[in-house]
Amino acid sequence: MIELRRFNLIGNSLAFARVKDQIEKLSRVDATVLITGESGTGKELAARAVHYLGQRNDHPFAPVNCGALADSLLESELFGHERGAFTDARTASAGLVGNADGGTLFLDEVDTLSPKAQAALLRFLQDRTYRRVGGGTTRQVNVRILAACNGDLESMSRSKLFRRDLLYRLNVLSLEMPPLRERGNDAIELAEILLERFSRQYNLPRKRISTKGINFIKQYDWPGNVRELENLVHREFLMSEDNELDFSGTCSSTVSAPLEMPSATASNLNFRDAKVLAIAKFEVDYVREIITRADGNLSAAARIAGTDRSAFGKLARKHGFGGNIGQRKHAG
After folding, report:
1. CATH 1.10.10 residue ranges in the chain?
2. What is the Cα–Cα distance from 201 to 191, expressed in whole angstroms?
3. Mean of pLDDT over the chain
4. What is the DSSP letter of 178?
5. DSSP state at residue 179
């Protein structure tokens, strides 16, 4: 099996061994791949590995954050524009698609695309042809498409939130990144490697994980996955004055715990812990109410909450509602 450590894809669990095997197979072919998984599981790292292990590795890897594509600028950013096409178009632009010619176009958070963006992307995917804004020439590019999403596109398509024909174009081959909580001792291995990396980065003495810290890592469910683990280890490495880390400074605010306030009132807690519990309880109650009102539809819930879909989805998954979203409406 190809060593994927250089792409920061680290782990020896059975679940992650399957992922590494799939990445190796996907790198040998040139078809479109849809990469799924919770936020922070390493979807872009997997996409980069597929690209750089493949035949296009000497051409660009062009990532696109679909959640940041505004409808008003969509076609200009994706397909480029000619000089003078609009007020600020002082020079011509090849766009993200043109810059990726010969390489790979990675469409991250593809589940956040608006209906207009979905239609524009579908037209391009049909034959890889497009026109720059303000131009009359039809252009064609040779790019491989990799896409990633946090949401359930199948459920979204049933709810008419994502075009089924676009789903078929994207989901030719698939790769699912497992959450960290399903990867056995990979979290401990990752934490130890991160500590070694931070030691070199900051030129500071190496720190170890105590037995209490190892138990913490094993018991916590890591809703933010590898990204959350890296953030926590980074912070503890820099802020803890001990050579052994037990993560005691984060347990009260990070570890999943009963969210009911103690019956003896907040006088049992210091101000910081009481505030943490109060905020957590508010978030749980609020998210539960909004999801119920939206009948389990994530996009509708985000609109009710007045926030973007990705941010609301992260909040929902943080409090264990991820498995209900998009399914409640179709249950039974």
Report:
1. 266-324
2. 15
3. 85
4. P
5. P
What DSSP string runs through 258-321?
A: --SPPTT-GGGS-HHHHHHHHHHHHHHHHHHHHHHHTTT-HHHHHHHHTS-HHHHHHHHHHTT-
pLDDT tops 60 at residue 267: no
Report the 10 Å Cβ neighbour count for 332. 4
Q: Which helix (H) or strand (E) holds 208?
A: strand 208-209
Give the pair of three-digit tokens for residue 317.
Answer: 């998954």
Give residue 305's pLDDT band: very low, low, confident or very high (50, 70, 90): confident
Q: Two tokens at 247? A: 């993560």
Can you read off the two tokens belonging to residue 265? Answer: 């009132």
pLDDT of residue 105: 97
Which CATH number is 266-324's, of 1.10.10, 3.30.1370, 2.70.70, 3.40.390? 1.10.10
> Residues 119-151, buried b or exposed e (16+ Cβ, 10 A)?
ebbbebbeeeebebbebeeebebebbbbbbbbb
User: Residue 329: how many CA atoms within 13 Å on its side-chain side?
Assistant: 18
Residue 145, H or E segment: strand 144-149
Residue whose pair of structure tokens reads 């490697």 in the numeric block: 193
Which position has the higher pLDDT, 307 or 286?
A: 286
Average pLDDT (199-223) is 93
Positive or negative: CA dihedral 56, 60, 65, 69: negative
The model's pTM = 0.75
Residues of the chain with CATH 3.40.50.300: 5-178
CATH 1.10.8.60 residue ranges of the chain are 183-254
Look at the domain 5-178 and name its fold.
Answer: Rossmann fold (3.40.50)
Distance between CA 183 and CA 163 in Å, rounded? 33
In this structure, what is the dihedral angle of CA atoms 226, 228, 233, 239, given to the nearest 10 degrees? 160
Name the CATH architecture for the domain at 183-254.
Answer: Orthogonal Bundle (1.10)
Q: What is the pLDDT at residue 297?
A: 77
